[in-house]
From TrEMBL, chains A, B:
Taxonomy of the source species: Bacteria, Pseudomonadati, Pseudomonadota, Alphaproteobacteria, Acetobacterales
Keywords: Lyase, Pyridoxal phosphate
Name of the featured protein: ornithine decarboxylase
Class in the EC hierarchy, top level: lyase
Orn/DAP/Arg decarboxylase 2 N-terminal domain location: 24-259
C-alpha cells in the first residue's frame, strides 16, 4: 500500500467495498519496466484495469495499448491514445468489432486460426497480423489453458496464408500465463518463435515483430523474482535466437503495471466459528468472488490482508464473501491466519488488488452495487 | 423456450448477447408450485433474478420474498411488496443493512451464529428470527458448502439464546443446495428439524415455522423429477414428523420460478479447430462465464443450446466465452455436440437461462457491456 493510499483511506474512510488506486504508482511501474526492457514497446493490457485515469496517465508516458474488444479500443481512443498505438489482441473477435477497429484506424490484430484470419482479411484488409502460438503455462498462477494459440506447424501455414490473403504477416506472439513466476517459460517460447522466424524466412516471409505477451508477476503474499530477472532472461534469449537482427519487441503487461497500485478497502461483516468439528473461524467480508475478487477462484491469487489488529495473536481462518452463494468463498484451503481480535465492523485492506478486480465485479449479484473506485 | 420468446427473437432480432424473459411463464411456474404445495408460503429468492417486471408480477400474485441484502429489500419494496412479506434470508448481514431493514419494517431474519444473533438483537430488536441448519447437499448440482448453517446442538442453544436476547425464536431453516435433483435431502432435513422442534418444545420454546429453502430443480439437458414428487415427499415428511400440528411452511424457490422463463440469445464469434492433437472443435460465443454464465463454473450447470442448424450432422465441441481469460471456458469436458455447419455470425440460444445469469454478469470485463435484458 502506497503512502498516498494509506493517507486517502485514513482521511476519507470511503464507503466500503471500494478500490483505491495510486496513479503515480502506475507510472512508476510503467517506468520500471521500460527501464529494464528499453528495446520492448509496452502495450498495456487494458483488461487489467481500463479506468480512464490510468489510460490517460499511460498515454502521457507514451505507452501503447493491448485491447481485448472494440469497447476497450474506444476507451483508449477516448483517453487520447492514437489508433496506431493500439493492438487488437484478442484472437476471438466479432466481425462488427473488427470492422469498427479498422474504421477507427487500428492496424494490428492477433489471430490463431484460419477462420479468424479470413475475417481479418475481409474486414480489416491489409492489416498487420500476428499469430499466437500455444506455449506451456507451467509456473503461472493464472494459466491460460488450451483456449488460445496454435502449434508451430499450423502457425507457419497461417502466416503464409496471411500473405496470400493480402494481409501483412507481421509477427508472432505467445502468452506464458498470468502471474508467471519463472523465466523458463519465456525462454522456451522465444526459442520456438526464433525457429519459426528462420523457417518462414526460408519460405520468403520476413516477420518483423515478437509479442512476448504479459504475465510478469507481482508480489502478493510471497516473493516473486524481480522484473530485471525476467528482462535479463528475455534479452538473453532474444539475442541467442535472433543475434543482432532483433525484431520489434512488444510486451503486454497488465497486472505488473496496475496490480500493486491498488488496494481494496472492505468491511468485516461477520466473524464466527460454525460449531462444526474442525472449528474453523470464518471471516465474511463485504466483497467476495462476485464483487471483484474473481481471481480467488480455486484460491489461485492470494491477496495480502491488513487489519487494524495486526501484531496481535492470530489464528487460521476461512474467508468468504457477503453473498448467499456457497461458491462465494475466497480462501478455505490456503493458509490464512488473521488476528483473533478481528470482529464485525472492522475495516481491512486487501493488498495489490489494482488488477483484474474492478471489471470482474458483477453488476448486482445479491443486490450488491459494483465496487466503488477511487483514482488518486 | 416459450412461443412468446421465440416470436420476440424472430421479430426483433435484438442485439446480442441478451436475455429474454417471458414474465407469463414466471407466473405459470409460481402457480404450479403453489398448486402442489398449497400449505407453503412462497418466498421468491430475489437473487435468482431481481428484475422489476418479475418482482411486480410476483407481488400481484401474492408472493413473499427472500432477500439477500438491503438492496434487494429495497427492490422488493419499490416493486410494491409489503415489508412484512420480506424475509432477510442472508445469514451474513452488515449492521447497516439490518438497521435499514428494521427501519423499513422487515420483521423476519435468518441467522446461524451467536455473533449474528447479537447484531439482530441490537439493530432489529424483537424481530422474528430463524436459525439455519447445515444439511447434506448431496444430489445438488450447485451445492452450498460449509459457508452457511450450524449444527443441531448449536441451533438449540442459539434459539434459547434468541429468546434471552428479546428476539422472537420463530423457526428453523435449511438449504439442500441449488438444483437439487433428489427428494432425499429434503426428507432427511425435515427429520432433523422435527427433532429440534420437539427438543425445544420440551425446553419451553414453541417454534412456529419451518423454512424449507429452495433448490427445486429445473430441466436443463436432462430430465429432473417433477415438482409434485418434491411436494409429495415434503408433505409426507412434514406429516410424519409434525403430525397434525403443522408449523407455518416457507419455501424459497428462485431457479424453479424464473429459470426456464428465460433464454439468452448469443452470436457465435468463432468456430475453429486449434490444430492440436485432440482436434477438438472450439465454439466461441459472445457471452461467457464473466458475461453471466457463472454457473458453468466447474461445468456445473449445463444449459441446453439451440442453433439454426439443428437436425444436421453434429460433432463434439468445447464452448468458450469471448474474453481473453483462459478461465472463460464453459464446457470442455461435458459432452456437447453441436452442428458441423455452425459458423461465425450464427445466432444461437442458451435455454433456461432466466435464473442466476443477469446479475452474475460482470460490469465490463474485457470492455464488454453487461447483458441486455428484455422482459416480455
Amino acid at each position: 500500500m502506497t503512502p498516498k493510499i494509506a493517507h486517502f483511506l485514513a482521511e476519507h474512510a470511503p464507503a466500503t467495498p471500494c478500490l483505491v488506486v495510486d496513479v503515480d504508482r502506475v507510472e512508476a511501474r510503467y517506468r520500471s519496466l521500460h527501464d529494464v526492457l528499453p528495446l520492448a514497446r509496452i502495450y498495456y493490457a487494458v483488461k487489467a484495469n481500463p479506468a480512464e485515469a490510468i489510460l490517460r496517465r499511460l498515454v502521457s508516458l507514451g505507452s501503447a495499448f493491448d485491447a481485448a474488444s472494440w469497447e476497450e479500443i474506444r476507451m483508449c481512443l477516448d483517453a487520447g491514445a492514437q489508433a496506431q498505438d493500439i493492438s487488437f489482441g484478442n484472437t476471438v473477435k466479432k466481425v462488427s468489432a473488427i470492422a469498427n477497429a479498422h474504421a477507427a484506424g487500428v492496424t494490428m490484430y492477433a489471430f490463431d486460426c484460419i477462420e479468424e484470419l479470413e475475417k481479418l482479411a475481409r474486414h480489416a484488409p491489409g492489416s498487420r497480423v500476428y499469430c499466437r502460438l500455444i506455449v506451456e503455462n507451467e509456473g503461472a498462477e493464472w494459466p491460460l489453458s488450451r483456449k488460445f494459440g496454435t502449434t508451430l506447424d499450423s502457425a507457419r501455414d497461417l502466416m503464409l496464408r496471411a500473405r496470400a490473403l493480402g494481409l501483412d504477416p507481421y509477427g508472432l506472439s505467445f502468452h506464458v500465463g498470468s502471474q508467471q513466476t519463472t523465466t523458463d517459460a519465456y525462454e522456451a517460447a522465444i526459442a520456438r518463435v526464433g525457429m519459426l522466424f528462420t523457417d518462414l524466412a526460408a519460405a520468403g516471409l520476413n516477420l518483423r515483430m515478437v509479442n512476448l505477451g504479459g504475465g510478469f508477476p507481482i508480489r502478493y503474499r510471497e516473493d516473486v523474482p524481480e522484473i530485471d530477472r525476467f528482462a535479463l532472461a528475455i534479452s538473453h534469449a532474444m539475442t541467442e535466437h535472433f543475434g543482432n537482427d532483433l525484431p520489434e519487441m512488444i510486451v503486454e503487461p497488465g497486472r505488473f503495471i496496475v496490480g500493486d497500485a491498488g488496494v481494496v478497502s472492505s468491511e468485516v461483516v461477520l466473524v464466527t466459528r460454525r460449531g462444526l468439528k474442525d472449528d474453523t473461524r470464518w471471516v465474511y467480508l463485504d466483497i467476495g468472488r462476485f464483487g471483484g475478487l474473481a481471481e480467488t477462484e480455486g484460491e489461485s491469487i492470494r491477496y495480502g490482508i491488513r487489519t487494524p489488529h495486526d501484531g496481535g495473536a492470530t489464528g487460521q481462518v476461512a474467508i468468504a464473501g457477503p453473498t448467499c452463494d456457497g461458491a462465494d468463498i475466497m480462501y478455505e484451503k490456503a493458509p490464512y491466519a488473521l488476528p483473533l481480535d478481528l470482529a464485525s465492523g472492522d475495516r481491512i485492506e486487501l493488498l495489490s488488488t489494482g488488477a483484474y478486480v474492478s471489471t470482474y465485479c458483477s453488476t448486482r449479484f445479491n443486490g450488491f452495487a459494483p465496487l466503488t473506485e477511487h483514482y488518486i
